[in-house]
Amino acid sequence: MALDLIAKIRGERQTIGVDIGHYSIKTVCVHHKRKNYCVLAMDMEPTPEGAFVDNEIQDEAKIREALVRLMMRNFPEMSKDDLVASIGWTAGVLADKSVAKVPKNGNEDAIVVQTAQAKPPFDDQDIMLDYQVMERGEKGEIKSLVVAAKNKILADYSKLFSSAGYKLTAIDVDVFCIANAYVATTPEDRLAETVALLDIGEKKSTLTFLHKGEFHSVRTLTAGSVNSVVATLSRHLGIDAATCHEMFEKNDLTMVKDRSVAEVESALQLAFEELVNSVEFGIRYFSSSESGEKPVRLLLCGGGANLPGICDFLKQKLSLDCCILNPFMNMEFDPAAVGESGLSVALASIYTPALGLALRKF
Asked: For FRET with 163, which of 5, 275, 316, 326 sits at 20 to 30 Å CA-CA?
């Protein structure tokens, strides 16, 4: 990476984000310039089957081997770059807003944490708390977003990277990474909009709401993952998972033998109905907490954002503007990062969580 020396001279940072998913491990390296960001590297490695289940590490050795392959291929001489990984929201992460009153010269950190720990679910001893101040009042009131994660999950991630020879600078949460990617790359005049970010993962999907540019809430969807779509297609079209994934990647509905395009589209729409119902329920829940307000836009990311026809289907069924989140759109790229063909929208949606990690401000 030619910018490495220049970055050190200027005191600028480079950050590597690593997103471990059920289908693949993704990494993005970003050079933090004064007025913009430059993507220096991006790559992925398949996640060994059965090694990562329900957003938890099940086979550390297999994931470590895949992680080392990915890192050595892209960062063979990694020095002091910040390295950030994320844990999955569905691995038992909790978040809520808390208000603490901190007297003048009081220990803000201790008081905010103690206030949060005074009520469930943050009173559990087997979790680690962190918080971000959202608003400070004139009389010492501090409104914070408090986040808790299981100690075991954090320890497993730390051990994984340590045993692979890497030191993590921070561990974040996947839904916050996606929100960070959106906020960091969206024009300021649009940040006041209320939006929903739909991350369609291999086995889990989440719906994150941003209200006036800030995190509001997140819901884990009971249906609508890539796996659930594959299961529906397999059941109705008699095709296996490998054929489904190939069809998704090529966006080619004609490759299903002995089936017309209309039949394939019909099966896809049947699978998408489950996702629509889950998203609809999530939006209703959000609206009830915000006096009927609804998101003005639904932004898709994750591997499932590239499912054929998914964006148009959601737009039609929900009567809501829907598009694929592409935070890479206005970024600079090192020529070696993406090649002459550039970065497709399909790949952009897959790399979004890793980018959000790399854009993190410490």
From this structure: 5
